[in-house]
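Q: Structure tokens for this one, please.
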Amino acid sequence: MKIRYYVNAMMSLEGQHSKVLCDPWITFDAESNSGLFNFPETNLSREQIASIHPDFIYITHTHADHFDPITLDLFPKDTPIIVSYYENNFTERNVRKLGFSDVRVSDPTKGLSLNASDHCWIEPSARVPALDSIGVFKIDGQVAVNANDNAFDAAQCSSLRNRYGPFDLACVPFSYQGPYPAFYENLDPHEKKIEALNKKARNFSVLVDFSTALDAKFVFPFAAGAIYGGNKASLHPFYGVGTVEEAVQHLRSHGITNYFLLSEGCSFDLTTGQTDGEYLPRSHETEKPYIDKISTKLGPFDETGLFYINHSERIDLTKLLKKARLRQQEWQTRTQTTSQSVYYLDVGEPQIYRLCLADVSVEKIFESNIKEEKFEIFRLPYSLMIGLLTGHYNWSNVKTQHMTFYRQPNKLDAELHELMSYLQI
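A: Here is the predicted structure, written as tokens:
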């Protein structure tokens, strides 16, 4: 079996009988509908991607850098798509909406057959079981695990190894994207820098944890290959995403040396241990011209954007938010969430909307009149708020690209953030 790498979490596992393409996502010609761009820049064309001709496509989850309708549209609609089982299979539904006719949900016990005697087992992430998945592939008798950007869970890694190991290859994340700390307004630049360094160190520790727990013959550190457009591009020093070279230094410091690195289009043969293609280090420093170009990109919700709603056409959102809050409350009951968190929605108007997980009330106040000692403000374009309320967009897919945040105290409220995906009418 060979692994061929492209960008971010996009890679293929190739054997004599089966070729599985994982998470295809290319922002061709530095254009993006989602506000998220490949990093580093790729020069791949649509024709090159279409020529991959995968036997199967594995979609790990529906974040914009893993599930991209534009890239997926380059493949025949009868291409088998592999997804995990979920209690609420949002991934399967979204793949089918794109017109793919052969969507295969992995059986919790038996997994799925590929071509010939090849096989795979896909299951939800133990830490985020409603959203992400982790996949194990047995191709040409060799076994690879694709952790994409899963959060580390020691018990799940141990279980996977016991059921399907030993592993020949572990594809594991060396870092993670996300809005914190870069887009949190309660932090000044010095605080963001400190938090970004802390985040980077935590991410590298997770890489070590994955590598140790999966105990594969070879380790491939990957993912974190994205950058945000517009003015968020210039905030990359605060992303908390280090380079893969820094990450493998961390591996070496823990005695882990069985890793390999791949650049776009390069491959690694698990049988021979040989790499085809030259690895070229690329970082935010080497890619400054590309970052400068990305920073000029306007989003669909900006004033000249396709989905911008003029101030003269805006309405009071109180009634819509009350309906959406009732639906969010239903999911609180389903998930047995007991949080009573207060949150505010700032859509660029003089007053902001106050909501609370303890009730279904919605009111408008001036930000200067906030009285709570604990709260979070989500600042987002008015038209994006309309899209979220009507289900045109999913909260977890757009929050990092198009929103900024303010929280007091500076502590993650995970339950609140998870429930924001259900604020819909």
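A few notes: Residues 205 and 255 are 13 Å apart (CA to CA). The chain has a mean pLDDT of 96.
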